[in-house]
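[job 4471] stage=fold_predict status=RUNNING
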Amino acid sequence: MSIVPKETIEVIAQSIGINNLSHDVALAVAPDVEYRMRQIMQEAIKCMRHSKRTTLTADDVDAALNLKNVEPIYGFASGGPLRFKRAVGHRDLFYIDDKDVDLKDVIEASLPKAPLDTAVTCHWLAIEGVQPAIPENAPVEVISAPSDVKKHEQKDDNLPVDIKLPVKHVLSRELQLYFDKVAELTLSESDSVLFKEALVSLATDSGLHPLVPYFTCFIADEVSRGLNNFPLLFALMRVVSSLLQNPHIQIEPYLHQLMPSVVTCLVAKRLGTRLADNHWELRDFTAHLVASICKRFGHVYSNLQSRLTKTLLNAFLDPKKALTQHYGAIQGLGALGPNVVRLLLLPNLETYMQLLEPEMLLEKQKNELKRHEAWRVYGALLVSVYMID
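[job 4471] inference complete, writing structure tokens
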């Protein structure tokens, strides 16, 4: 027997203008009405569960009707549950307690804020254990003293919220000693056997990842103030090379700090002060280092090689740059491969040779050092061009 009484069917029929519905018809229609109601409610419950809710709303019923290609019920747009009240004096009669709204109050009410469009954004929660001070993270003002681990803050609804403090980057005593020893060897004993062993350790040790930001800052600082110290510059580039070879560390986040130092050792006007300083060898070594960086991390930073080639090409085409800078730019472009030489060097070769040839001739360039530099540049051009063949 249907739980929908025939009286309900008769009342609904009268509401739509059918006044002479027989009792037998109402009794036969009631089970079908119950079946349709159960079907709609089952779909509505599915919509509720997919929405990760435990309360059935009118929106869920509208969604179920839509799935069944049935016109939704208008007038029940509330997202919350409906509040039914029992009619006084009637055991089985309920009604919805709707609040009477004055039309004047609705007209005079201020407009609500426009809803924001749904969007997805990303930000750093922490970088190497340190929480950056950005709007998406908890501001420093709401965080308690450093001695506390957590702070309980009260929201508007008086619910406690735990705010975690930024995690400080703490090195172990062993790593601090390791870093200090490698830095000391780099600064003062770059020709020693111990420094070579340190380079091997930098390239193979699996526990050095916490030291990467410290080595990065150390290299950047020493290169910026040590351009007159050729042994130091070469030692620093060898440290960079060893760090890049280490498969156990993730150096990608620090490339933006390393690249300026590496490019400086490639296209700087002067590297060292003594005539015995073989800065040509340092530029050759750095050129191959730059090429290995582009080959290894080009897929991670899509604009890495394009920005680098733009920098080198500008140094190569600038007639105000020194020949040593032209040499570094040519070696860097040549190390990037024959395609770069074909696209960037060859189209500008004829114009550049008009600038270089006078510097190579004894009749026009009396300075022997300048002539030597010009011939080194010429040799670098020949090597790069022959790479195409």
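[job 4471] summary: Residues 148-153 have pLDDT under 50 and may be disordered.
[job 4471] exit 0
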